[in-house]
Amino acid sequence: MDDVERAAAMALPPEVWDFIAGGSGRELSLAANRAAFDGVFVRPRILNDVSACGTEATLLGRAARMPVAIGPVAYHRLVCPEGELATARAAKAAGVPFTVATLSSVPVEEVTAVGGSVWFQLYWLRDTGRTLDLVRRAQDAGCEAIVLTVDVPWMGRRLRDVRNGFALPDDVRAVHLGAGPSTAHRRGDGASAVAVHTAETFSRSLTWASVERLRESTRLPVVLKGVLAPEDARRAVEHGVDALVVSNHGGRQLDGAMTAVAALPDVVDAVGGACEILLDGGVRSGTDVLKALALGASGVLVGRAPIWGLAAGGEDGVRQVLELLHGELTDALGLAGCVGVADARRLETLVTSVGGSVRDSGGRSV
């Protein structure tokens, strides 16, 4: 996957690369996402027949080829003319769900027309009526879940974009928010035009009452993305949420927020199996997927890696990324003595901290 990342960096204009690759502030949480995975070790099991090792899983009630979904990323047409259509076709071919974003550069109806399993990521807008219209539009288009992002009252201070004065090119637009140019296209020194646009558009008043309103407004599964605290996880279950995504938004919101890997075990314990739990942030390999499963996740979202593939090779590039993940996951499962995904969730883990201490999967120091 590092090779794909390097190819994407070479293919993209520097300011576009910074928009995709960057995090907020000093990028501490961005770097910690990878370090957290590197600090997780699993205890393999032996003498199991893994000659028919399988990666199949169920995500939000639907069969998937592996416990992986493509997470929401804005503006795919920044890196490829076909944008989200190419990514959705690759996801369909790989047998995994694709999440189309509120800030998609291709309409949701065109994405779902590709076929496959499609989820819709929702930002709560200042205009609640407009927000619920988007929910109905996604439902009517054939989306299978609504993924409400709950950690963006406004965009984190992403210094790479600020320094670049980043703005969208004229031919890339948030098509779900209007047909014409917006403040996201108005370049200014020392400011991110995309951040200005989202500050104007996103609600700062998203609350549990909003979650209730969403739950009442759709028959689709409701997923909350951006949960790190076990108290919030329990409350989400009380509000009838179907799944949680444990995430620090890829290190792009609060710099210094704990990693999803660190937060996951407590969230799993808090929920007690009452809903599915997905992990997002820093997933780069099939071994990372195995570690997430061993820590209690139902599956993972991958965001940046498919975009690297899209930038480096269009639809074929995304397919290669997903096939790489599938092959690596098969390898990791077999070498860990797992016949399938369910076995991975029973593996013991050792998690090393930055300070060097080690904790096992029961939370005990060892």
TrEMBL record:
**What does the record list as coiled-coil region(s)?**
none
Q: Which GO terms describe its molecular function?
A: FMN binding; oxidoreductase activity, acting on CH-OH group of donors
InterPro entries listed in its UniProt record: Aldolase_TIM (IPR013785), Alpha-hydoxy_acid_DH_FMN (IPR012133), FMN-dep_DH (IPR000262), FMN_HAD (IPR037396), FMN_hydac_DH_AS (IPR008259)
Q: Which cofactor does it need?
A: FMN
Give the UniProt keywords, A-Z: Flavoprotein, FMN, Oxidoreductase
**Catalytic residues, chain numbering:** H249 (proton acceptor)
- Residues of the FMN hydroxy acid dehydrogenase domain: 1-354
Q: In its keyword annotation, does this UniProt entry include Zinc?
A: no
Please tell me where FMN binds in this chain.
72-74, 121, 149, 158, 225, 247, 280-284, 303-304
The residues listed in the UniProt record as binding glyoxylate, with positions renumbered to this chain, are Y123, H249, R252
Q: Which family does it belong to?
A: Belongs to the FMN-dependent alpha-hydroxy acid dehydrogenase family.
Q: Which PANTHER family match?
A: 2-HYDROXYACID OXIDASE 1, S -2-HYDROXY-ACID OXIDASE-RELATED
User: What's the protein name?
Assistant: Alpha-hydroxy-acid oxidizing protein
Q: Which organism is it from?
A: Streptomyces cyaneochromogenes
